[in-house]
Design brief:
Elements (H helix, E strand, L loop, with lengths): L1 H7 L16 H23 L20 H14 L10 H4 E11 L4 E10 L4 E10 L5 E3 L13 E4 L2 E3 L11 E7 L6 H15 L3 E7 L3 H10 L1 H4 L1 H9 L5 H11 L7 H11 L3 H9 L2 H13 L7 E4 L3 E3 L4 H9 L10
Parallel strand pairs: 7-8
Antiparallel strand pairs: 1-2, 2-3, 3-4, 5-6, 6-10, 7-9, 9-10
């Protein structure tokens, strides 16, 4: 009986755990495959090269839409635009050293950052001018604590003291052509005659410098009290004296005697006599100078001359009297540092 009863009891077979924790071969294989796939994904993610799309592809999140050359051109235009701003900021295009421009791009904000060094002519103090340029639409925000120019100029600052005029092309001649625009009663105009004569002495026959007289606000202000014809004598004497070899002496004497007040014809004639000008030639030129003055006004309008004194070099570059030498060198390209990139 005992043996029959013992044979009816269920038997539980317990196998010892093996080295795989009781997993059968199928589960072990699947686990190995999962581990291998994870390892493979990690290897791919860390070792594959980063794909950078072309800079002009607007869908790229890695590369800027615009390149450094395009950004540089926009900054050069922004700087040139300050030439039309009233006040001391109008000097910014002529005191900025664009060759020192430093550019950087932010992946997080998608903005370009540009810094240009400039030198204040008063005290020769250097400072930086900085801009933020949106990579999306190339809009420019200056760091200057002032309003930005109301209109973006298509002109460009291409070198220190040199603005390239949009739509104007270099005129070819044996001598570099220079137009010296001035309203003679405007501040600094008579003084600029010394800059002009110094350049003529320096370059000699390689320079073809002519004065272009403008009846601007300063001359018109004098005309309100002295009469237009009397006010125009200063323009006529400078224009006609400049055509004679002794003009340098006349310019130096005029600069010494001029005191920012109305210069009567008698005083101008006395200076002409002291300088040794040919009076017959001078008188003839003055008598026929009205048409010359009218033609020069048209030329000033063509170059959009709004402030004087201003200098146009090689029919394509604008400068101040103090930077005209740099513009002449730039126009002749060979002697200007770094100008081979033009």
């Amino acid at each position: 009986m005992k043996q029959e009863k013992r044979s009816k009891e269920p038997q539980i077979i317990v196998k010892p755990l093996g080295r795989f924790g009781g997993l059968d071969n199928l589960h072990i294989t699947l686990a190995v495959v999962v581990v291998l796939l994870i390892a493979l994904l990690l290897v791919i993610s860390y070792s594959k090269p980063i794909l950078v799309l072309p800079a002009n592809n607007t869908t790229s999140a890695l590369a800027p839409v615009h390149n450094a050359t395009q950004v540089r051109a926009v900054v050069e235009q922004e700087l040139a635009s300050y030439g039309g701003v009233n006040g001391s900021l109008s000097l910014l295009p002529y005191i900025s050293n664009v060759s020192s421009m430093k550019l950087g791009y932010s992946n997080s904000s998608h903005d370009w950052y540009a810094t240009v060094s400039a030198t204040n002519p008063v005290g020769n103090v250097a400072f930086n001018v900085s801009f933020i340029i949106s990579d999306a639409n190339m809009s420019v925000t200056p760091f200057l604590q002032t309003a930005k120019p109301s209109q973006l100029s298509m002109n460009r600052v291409v070198a220190t003291g040199v603005v390239q005029l949009n739509g104007k092309y270099e005129c070819t001649s044996n001598a570099t052509r220079v137009y010296w625009f001035m309203d003679p009663y405007a501040t600094g105009s008579v003084r600029s005659l010394l800059n002009a004569t110094a350049l003529e002495a320096r370059y000699g026959s390689a320079l073809n410098l002519t004065f272009k007289m403008i009846t601007g606000p300063s001359t018109q202000s004098v005309a309100a009290s002295a009469g237009l014809q009397n006010a125009l004598y200063l323009s006529k004497y400078i224009l006609c004296a400049s055509q004679q070899p002794r003009f340098g002496a006349f310019a130096a004497d005029l600069n010494s005697e001029y005191s920012n007040r109305y210069a009567p014809q008698s005083s101008l004639q006395s200076l002409a006599n002291v300088a040794g000008l040919d009076n017959a030639t001078l008188s003839s030129c003055i008598a026929n100078s009205t048409s010359l003055l009218n033609n020069q006004a048209l030329l000033a309008a063509y170059y959009n001359i709004t402030q004087t004194p201003s200098v146009i070099v090689a029919c394509a570059y604008m400068a101040l009297p103090q930077t005209a030498g740099s513009a002449i060198s730039y126009a002749n390209s060979a002697s200007y540092p770094g100008n081979s990139t033009r």
